[in-house]
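To illustrate the input format used throughout this study, we show a single complete record. The first block contains the structure-token representation of the backbone; no residue identities are included at this stage. The design step must infer an amino acid for every position from geometry alone.
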């Protein structure tokens, strides 16, 4: 060490030694700055490694030759050009190989790379020393030579290791250690060389002089300084760009709707704002560092989690300890040289709740919360299957609420819904653990009961249900009373299959409703014959139009004053192929109850209008409308289309409605009547006096005609009260300027009595029975072509 100290202090120009050290430190700083970029990878990795090799190689070379210029022996010194250039190349190439190994980031390669860099320093030094030509010769101290090489081989890996430990920070420590490695090797190597003069020694002309070398070294030093300055500026620019990129990436991640978490195994590295909100944390610092504290299912590193599979469902533990349903998608992430994982976390709690609600709705009635028809049928099938093997009887109770429709019409649908909820609660209470209660639809309920001494157990349950429903319901502050009709069928006594069991319970219910309210009826094999015939008749009616079984007959309307026929009333007739003529009272009720009245009514109207359009003379046509037709939204549009298609003058069409139409919803009915009136048709009040007749109807709506029901006409000659009513109605019509028609006139006495009372028009068997329109051709109507023949004659 003393020899090295003496060499530096006594044999060198210290000012140049300091300059050489500064140059060396700047080169070291530049080398480690560029090395950091090379180690980071990317598409420019090898360019950064090459830059590191160049900066470090030139720095080592400049340090060596500046120090050589600072060396002041008493002998002339020149430098061999070829070996000087070779020393530069050796410094760049060998250290470059070492830096490339260091960038592989494996412990063994990092150590080997450090040794190669140290070897590059030593190689450059001793090639550079071999380029020295002096007026004498050099004797080497082998111990100091070995020590110089050892200094380079030890301190270079140490400097590189220090740089790795301080990754991301300015590499002062690594640069100082690397500077010490270069300078230590150089000055120890210089101390190992002793120059002896030799008489007669001449220096070669091709060698470089000290002044020339000084210029070269200074130029190289300036290049290093420039590269260092440019590298630092560029590094700062890159750092700023990286920072901006990091901010942009952070903003992008925070803007994501899904929660994002970066983990290393089970260690939480980072998370975006969406995840913090989802987990209920105020900031990232509050996040647990251990992933299972957030996602208990992720309790150990699992490489399979980074597969490209589908997202899996899990639970997230929030900051307050509560859990929520989530969906997690895991992907690999290379970040700062580390293989990490990114977890995309999506909140699916609302979806889960929606799925649960949908699942509930699929098996439960929305309004009452009772099991629906699907659940009831499934339970019934399972219960009957088990009961068949256990010889355990099963009872089905089908319920229908008596009076529900009236309450629904009077108080509105919301009141009806409130009533159904109350009924469902009472049914659950009455049935208790004895069975399953379900709502089949509308005001229809069903109860499934298994076990017990049947039919006694089912009868007792039915009594409990009827008793439970007897007390009035409080609907919007108003009392409402209803009762229930119940039909009961037993398995296996009444049926051996679930479908048949329900059908038989329905038959029993139909019998209970037909016999009165609040009754219970058990199924009997003979009770359903009439119902079966009725349903068959309803089925036949559906196809009667297509089969040509329906016909329109016409009954004339006569004017009492002139005795002439002023119009016809269209009456529907059905001639069943097996049963013969079916009464209109039967099949019209079937059409109304079976939902066919709109289709049937439109067919009659179209058929009658088509025929009336060709009548000569153009008499009036009367067509009856059922109150149920007013429940269909397109009634007015349907009539308007029929008139347009058939070409019938609307003024010739008289639509007859019953007063019952105005009882249920007068405002809605009157609105439709006003629209019909706007079409140009006439509106007549039919069967006046048979229902809840009110003079206010004539005030609310200007009817064109009123018809007295046949029941009054048939009794008027023998019953003074009936005749008084007819007299009053005729007087009312006269006062309102409204024609009055008497229906059901069958005898001359009735006709004369009506004429005496001043009735305007009559209709009945005395005038003519209903017949096909052809029956009246040549009598009331002219036959087609008859007018033409008369003119020719």
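Output of the design step:
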């Amino acid at each position: 060490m003393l020899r090295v100290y003496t060499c530096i202090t006594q044999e060198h120009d210290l000012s140049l030694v300091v300059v050489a050290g500064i140059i060396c430190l700047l080169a070291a700083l530049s080398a480690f700055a560029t090395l950091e970029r090379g180690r980071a990878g990317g598409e420019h990795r090898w360019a950064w490694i090459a830059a590191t090799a160049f900066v470090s190689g030139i720095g080592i070379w400049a340090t060596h030759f500046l120090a050589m210029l600072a060396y002041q022996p008493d002998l002339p010194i020149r430098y061999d050009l070829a070996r000087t250039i070779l020393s530069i190349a050796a410094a760049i190439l060998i250290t470059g190989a070492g830096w490339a190994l260091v960038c592989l980031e494996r412990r063994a390669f990092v150590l080997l790379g450090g040794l190669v860099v140290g070897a590059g320093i030593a190689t450059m030094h001793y090639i550079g020393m071999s380029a020295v030509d002096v007026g004498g010769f050099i004797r080497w101290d082998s111990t100091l030579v070995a020590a110089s090489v050892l200094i380079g081989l030890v301190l270079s890996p140490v400097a590189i290791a220090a740089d790795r430990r301080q990754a991301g920070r300015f590499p002062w420590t690594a640069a100082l250690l690397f500077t010490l490695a270069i300078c230590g090797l150089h000055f120890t190597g210089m101390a190992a060389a002793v120059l002896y003069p030799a008489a007669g020694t001449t220096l070669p002309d091709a060698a470089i002089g000290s002044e020339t070398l000084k210029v070269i070294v200074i130029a190289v030093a300036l290049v290093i300084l420039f590269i260092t300055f440019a590298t630092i500026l560029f590094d700062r620019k890159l750092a700023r760009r990286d920072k901006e990129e990091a901010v942009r990436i952070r903003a992008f991640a925070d803007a994501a709707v899904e929660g994002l978490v970066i983990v290393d195994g089970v260690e939480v590295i980072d998370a975006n704002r969406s995840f913090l909100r989802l987990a209920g944390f105020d900031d990232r610092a509050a996040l647990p560092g251990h992933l299972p504290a957030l996602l208990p299912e992720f309790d150990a590193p699992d490489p399979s989690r980074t597969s490209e599979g589908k997202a899996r469902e899990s639970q997230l533990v929030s900051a307050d300890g509560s859990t929520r349903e989530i969906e997690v998608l895991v992907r690999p992430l290379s970040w700062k040289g580390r293989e990490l994982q990114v977890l995309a976390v999506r909140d699916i709690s609302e979806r889960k709740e929606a799925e649960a609600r949908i699942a509930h709705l699929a098996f439960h009635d929305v309004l009452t919360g009772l099991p629906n028809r699907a659940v009831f049928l499934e339970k019934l099938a399972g219960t009957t299957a088990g009961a068949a093997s256990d010889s355990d009887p099963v009872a089905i109770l089908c319920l229908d609420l008596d009076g529900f429709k009236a309450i629904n019409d009077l108080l509105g649908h919301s009141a009806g819904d409130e009533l159904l909820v109350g009924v469902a609660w009472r049914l659950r209470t009455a049935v208790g653990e004895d069975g399953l209660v379900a709502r089949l639809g509308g005001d229809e309920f069903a109860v499934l009961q298994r076990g017990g001494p049947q039919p006694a157990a089912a009868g007792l349950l039915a009594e409990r249900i009827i008793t439970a429903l007897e007390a009035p319901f409080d609907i919007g502050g108003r009392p409402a009373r209803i009762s229930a009709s119940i039909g009961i069928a037993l398995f296996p006594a009444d049926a051996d299959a679930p479908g048949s069991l329900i059908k038989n319970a329905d038959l029993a219910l139909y019998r209970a409703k037909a016999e009165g309210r609040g009754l219970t009826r058990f199924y009997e094999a003979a009770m359903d014959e009439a119902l079966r015939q009725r349903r068959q008749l309803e089925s036949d009616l559906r196809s009667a139009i297509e089969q040509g079984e329906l016909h329109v007959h016409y009954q004339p309307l006569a004017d009492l004053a002139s005795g002439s026929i002023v119009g016809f009333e269209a009456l529907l007739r059905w001639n069943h192929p097996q049963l013969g003529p079916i009464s209109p009272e039967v099949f019209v009720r079937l059409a109304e109850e079976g939902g066919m009245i709109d289709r049937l009514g439109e067919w009659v109207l179209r058929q009658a209008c088509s025929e009336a359009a060709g009548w000569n003379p153009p008499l009036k046509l009367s067509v009856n409308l059922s109150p149920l037709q007013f429940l269909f939204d397109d009634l007015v549009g349907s009539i308007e289309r029929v008139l347009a298609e058939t070409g019938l003058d609307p003024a010739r069409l008289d639509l007859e409605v019953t007063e019952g139409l105005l009882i249920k919803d007068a405002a809605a009915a009157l609105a439709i009547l006003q629209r019909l009136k706007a079409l140009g048709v006439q509106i007549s009040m039919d069967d006046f006096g048979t229902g809840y007749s009110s003079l206010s109807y004539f005030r609310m709506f200007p009817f064109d005609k009123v018809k007295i029901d046949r029941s009054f006409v048939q009794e008027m000659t023998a019953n003074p009260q009936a005749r008084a009513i007819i007299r009053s109605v005729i007087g009312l019509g006269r006062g309102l300027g409204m024609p009055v028609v008497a229906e059901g006139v069958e005898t001359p006495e009735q006709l004369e009595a009506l004429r005496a009372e001043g009735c305007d028009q009559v209709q009945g068997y005395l005038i003519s029975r209903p017949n096909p329109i052809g029956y009246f051709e040549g009598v009331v109507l002219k036959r087609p072509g008859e007018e033409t023949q008369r003119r020719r004659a």
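Structural context for interpreting the output: Residues 1-5 have pLDDT under 50 and may be disordered. The domain at 364-527 is CATH 3.30.70.270 (Alpha-Beta Plaits).
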